[in-house]
């Protein structure tokens, strides 16, 4: 186990491979050419790095026509990469800007397949305050009131439980240093807000825009939400 951990840490610790893993947190699959441009390296060098990440089962590749697309081999890899970002030194809180001046990537963003940043943490805080979810020994659990809340929101929890992945978990936010919601439930929340046009993706960015409609509806659904 120790040897395997050292090998995995060494793979991700390389600057180019770390940049590849960070880019893939976008949640989309990328071609080798797109990744080469994103991390500013040659196609030949990219091929070598991708080979090592595939061999370690950190990435997988899917072929569509003439193109090959690379993505994380599992959602757990994404969670691990996001968690590693918490090693970044914490900023001086006395210098923290007001929410309206937050950089977009810190204010509201996707963390692979769920919502993160200041807004992602605020949504988790709201659901805890409403007793929709509770914190229990560093885990999140949905209450009976929460089951009704999610059902009213159009989210089928029973279907989510059948998926071969983590159902609900806290995910430590690297910019806020507090938990947002991950797992199947976090994905369903993100998708439902996108579907309702409460939030919108920004092209070529993990940052998320909250629409005017979204502000109104989120204030109704997530009480005491601080934008």
From TrEMBL:
InterPro entries in the cross-refs: ArsR-like_HTH, HTH_ArsR_DNA-bd_dom, HTH_Metal-responsive_Reg, WH-like_DNA-bd_sf, WH_DNA-bd_sf
Domain HTH arsR-type: 1-92
A Pfam match: HTH_20
PROSITE patterns per UniProt: HTH_ARSR_2 (PS50987)
GO biological process: response to cadmium ion; response to lead ion
GO molecular function: cadmium ion sensor activity; DNA binding; DNA-binding transcription factor activity; lead ion binding
PANTHER family found in the cross-reference section: TRANSCRIPTIONAL REGULATOR-RELATED (PTHR39168), TRANSCRIPTIONAL REGULATORY PROTEIN (PTHR39168:SF1)
Protein name: Transcriptional regulator
Organism, scientific name: Flavobacterium hercynium
